[in-house]
Amino acid sequence: MTAQSWELLALFLALTLLCVKPLGLYMAKVVAGEPVGPARSSGALERLIYRLCGIDPAAEMGWQRYAIALLVFNALGGVLLYVLQRLQYELPLNPQHFAGVSPDTAFNTAISFITNTNWQSYTPETSLSYLTQMMGLAVQNFLSAATGIAVAVALIRGLARHSARTIGNFWVDLTRVTLYVLLPIAALIAVVLVSQGVIQNFSPYKTVSLLQPVTYPQQRVNAAGKTVTQSVTTDVQTLPMGPVASQEAIKELGTNGGGFFTATSAHPYENPDALTNLIEILAIVLIPAALTYTFGHMVGDTRQGWAVLAAMLILFVPLYVLCNHAEQLGNPRLTALGVNQTASRLQSGGNMEGKEVRFGIAGSTLFATVATATSTGAVDSMHDSYMPLGGLALLFNMMLGEVVFGGVGSGLYSMLIFAIVGVFIAGLMIGRTPEYLGKKIEAFEMKMSSIAILVMPVLVLVGTAVAVSLPAGRAGAFNPGAHGFAEILYAFTSAANNNGSAFAGINAATPFYNITLGLVMWIGRYWPIVAVLAISGSLAAKKRIPVTAGTMPTHGPTFILLLIGTVLLVGALTFVPALALGPIVEHLLLWRH
Amino acid sequence: MNEVPASSARAGGLERRVEPHRDGPGTSVLRPAVMLLLLMTVITGLAYPLAITGIAQVLFPDQANGSLIVRDGRAIGSRLIGQPFSAAGDFWSRPSASTPQPYNGLDSTGSNLGPLNPALLVAVKARIAALRAADPGNTAPIPVDLVTASASGLDPDISIAAADYQAARVARARHLRLATVRRLIAAHARYPWLGVLGEPHVNVLELNLALAAVK
Question: Is B79 on the interface with A (CB under 8 A)?
Fold first, then answer.
């Protein structure tokens, strides 16, 4: 690792930690229903929404009603998004006159965006209208993020309350999080991004003249119906336009990741320089990190939140170091050809295949590690072209269950489930009834925790096994050998964890992948959510048991290690065999001499 | 969806008393769900992007509209989007994986070739051969960004090392002194801010425009 890579890591961590407490406290206020900011005007909008929707903000819900409201709301969002895509040619703001999206792709994309996955099996710049992007995709960027936060908050309430029948009001949580957390921060980020060159307009695509005409081969079908290759010369370049910045901001802030363009955050119009790159990385991690403080504050002991955050950071840093180190080392096969991959004052060096010069190794690997750790599908470099161990770090980040920060809300609630499993294991070891934050952990919680945690590995491993067993699955692989297997494994890992990034060589724009990955995303999102809400309801109803000398503290180093151990145990034991067939074999092949 | 199971789990059995269902259990979920979705679509999907567009067009019109470079009233490119160059007298951009032509603004993509893929080696060898053929005397190791495809296929930059590598060829082809070309590179070179943020790079289109302006 270069000194610059360490310094960038330090800068990123410092800025993140600076935001944790203020934002965490602010979010605690928002979800507690307290007035925030210039309350008069914003409160008026909130009240208007409740009145129009027939919502009584004072009425709380039990966990089942909370879950039903969430599932119905998300399903309706999916239907709306599907319809918008299919009918976009009938609708305004379609200056390029794109046709409707095909049914299987629209199905996949609708699920992808309501589940906060943002897997992209479509090519946005040649298939989606501005209206579909902003009123379909970007809306779900907000709402799926708010949904995740709502579930996390509901679980925290379950831990914080005692002898209670309710865990909050889903409509109120969703509305307040969207209005008071996501919208203002996204607006701020969007304006800063525009100032650096991220575009924001509704113009048709622009044509500019090239300084030097370019000649290229193009396949055409001639009059006889035969495909012939012709030489074509063009002296113009078409530049895609659109309301990018507003979408870019929430795409990162909501740990969504579906880019306005195919290359997502590698596209210069989405991410024009190193400063926007850092802002986008921070935007991704901001809410997941700060929610740990919200958690500590709401359960009345901020040390509990810091302990969870510490566990996340301890898992994060080594994976970043591994990824960065592998990429900075470069590709030995290129070195053999006389290519200079050494970092210097004049170049970043390293494995630059699939990376942008302005981000180099440091900015690319930090973005990639943060995005895969947080269930953000955005990339600023092409993960498929990473070195085997670099790609392994990214895969493993997801395989840990997206709990290293994790998605907005989903990261925290998944990590708290691991905490419950952790104290259960510890309880078994010392022969005491396990408890967490004064709540007895009993059979019901453990059943639901197992359901929440184990569905993801089942989806990933069974999904990958089915795909590599079928011709339609194998046809998707782009690279040969172990790397092709890794592409398929990555696709199912990404979908089941609602990450959304890809080893993008894989051709997933087929009915087989659109449908299987669509289902995997759907189950991978809502199955754990229902289990988490069930745990929340059960915990809320319990009495709080007083702390005694025999209570295991859940804010100290022992607990942090226990939590990390639990996460690693589940992740590593489940996935090491699959990783051995992919990136590990590839690494051994590459460095065998 | 309509019926809440009344007696299944411990917390659930109690919840009916919590929220009074004036219109029956079905409508009490459906109406808020439909209305909230529509209102949120208007707020986050219409009002928000329109407001940001308004602010952007007033405060930063140049950036918001694509950072275009305009000469004689004609847009000749964007500062942020790379263009392909292959003449000996121009600085070459990075290889682009976009199809069918390199630097196709409608196909932002990387090659997605894995590090062991034989096709990657074939491509890199061809790029090395092209660079060597254009500058036979130059035996220096080639900076990696000049022979690898970018992530977006539209990378506007090359490393300073990659510009230096091409300086002698460009000077020869343009009948300029090497020192003149090096001065141009130095004027366009950007280093990391405070040594941390950013990478050493040169914007190829701007460098080539400056080169063309040298008399």
Answer: yes
